[in-house]
Each structure stands twice: as structure tokens, then as C-alpha cells.
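Entry 0007
Protein: protein-ribulosamine 3-kinase
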Amino acid sequence: MENELKAALKLSSVKFRGSATGGCIHEGKIYVTENGPIFVKISKDPMARPLFEGEIAGLRAIHNTKTVRVPTPIEIVELSKGLCLVMEYVDMRSLTKAAIELGDELAKMHLHNRSLKSNEASIHKNTNDGVQYIDQYGFHCPTYCGRIIQDNTWKENWAEFFAQKIDSQLKLIESDYADREARELWSELSLKVPNFFKDVEVTPSLLHGDLWSGNAASAPEGAIIFDPASFYGHDEYDLAIAKMFGGFSQAFFTAYHNVLPKKPNFEKRIELYQLFHYLNHWNHFGTGYRSSSISIMRSLLQNL
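Output (C-alpha cells):
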């Protein structure tokens, strides 16, 4: 593999340093080169290229906000036995020391697009150079949350865009499990999704899209986030998974809300957004996540 990387990246020295986590679906390796260390995320999935292309697009979009740091992507490289995404290697540690910084920077990332509103009149659909205001919900290319593609076709209405995301997850569940209860609960809840946004103005924000605690860390220069599943959506969406699976410290949320205060019915919308992630985990890891998915839909229907 070293020779393949040397040829593709036009390097004279590539030496294996060790393995590292590449997330739940990829293998990760670290190499030392004359230009510094690199991180290589390896996939044997034939559909890896669009997944990696979506990841690069998300990293570049976040970088262009000049708010929270992300690793710099370098290149997608064809291997004899798969495909890999090469990016800057960053020495990462527990987020603990940088939690406050990340909360502040994430809120500023969410505000970045609206700060451009006075400078740009309309959406620029084909590129994402971080300069023009985006006035719709979606992204200029598909991105992936885990192995599952996200349809990021632009929509003017956030409630419709989000409902489509849930629809996509439920279609996969229907195909694999034919779960009648899940289908019936969503049929009822989907009609009420607009009610969650009656008193809230939703302005498109660039989102990480999968910001659980395993996708954030502390680097020598401060907070860093990675493995994005980006699109433009409601800023609160990023906080939903941040509260799941152990979540982030209270210091993170306090710092975030010092910049972007909570709006009415915040908790209900967080629960709605968490539904997507439980369904996504159900599709990835099986019926262990069914109970949480069903419970959330019942709760939302009862308490709306």
C-alpha cells in the first residue's frame, strides 16, 4: 500500500506508523511522509467514492466558515484492493478541555450562513465556496450518514426536507423488517411535523450532520470535528445527536447557547431530530434501536 500511496500522492517516502480508528465502517491507518503524517481511511465498498466525495465536500464547507477546525482532505486514491481517503493527520485527544471552545465555535458555524444574507441574494446551487448565502435546505452533493446516502436535493421548506429524511429511513426499515407499527406511527406523525416549527424561524445553517461525541476531539490547536454528514438545515439538528450516546458535557451546551439561545419548544424538536438518528442506527445495527425509535414517535404524538 505504501507504494500505491507514493505513486498517487507523488511522494518519495511513505512509511506505516500505526492503525487508528476509521469509524464503524472504515479501516484507518497513519503514515509518515516527507510532508508530514497523513491519515488514510480505507474502504473496500464499491460505493465508497461518492461517500468519500461527500465527506470531502462537508469538510471543505465547514473549513470555509472559518469557525471550527476540521482535518484537511488531500485526495481520494484508488487502491488495488479498494479505495482510500487521504487527509491531514491530527493528533487528537479527549474533547474535555476543548468542550467550551467547540460549543462556541459550533454556534458560530451555524450562524455563518445567515451572516452572509445581506451580501448575497440567492442560492448558489452548484458550488459551496463558503461565500454566498444559501437560502434553501440541502447540499450541492449527496452526503452519507454512516453507509446510508442522504438525498440533499434542495428544498425551500425545512419541515418537508426533514420529513423526507425520515421517510428515507422508514423505507429502508420497511424493506428489511416490514415493521407495521413503525410505518403507522410515522404516517400519523409525518402530518404533524410542520407543527414543531410554528413559532420558530428556521434559517439554513451549515450542519456537521452527525455530531456525536465520537466525531469531535481536542487537538493541539483546540477543538476539531470530523466525519461530517453535512447539509444546510436547522441549527438545532446538530444538537440532537450531541445529546445521545453519552453526549457532550454541559459546558459545551452552555457555551453554545450563550451564542445561540434556546427557542420555544426546543426540547420537542430535539426529540424529533433524535428520531432520525435512532432510525439510522436501526438501519445500520439492527432492531436493538427499534424500541427507542418507536418510543420517540409515541412520545411526540402524545405530547405535541
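Curator remark: The chain is about 40% helix and 20% strand. Residues 121-128 have pLDDT under 50 and may be disordered.
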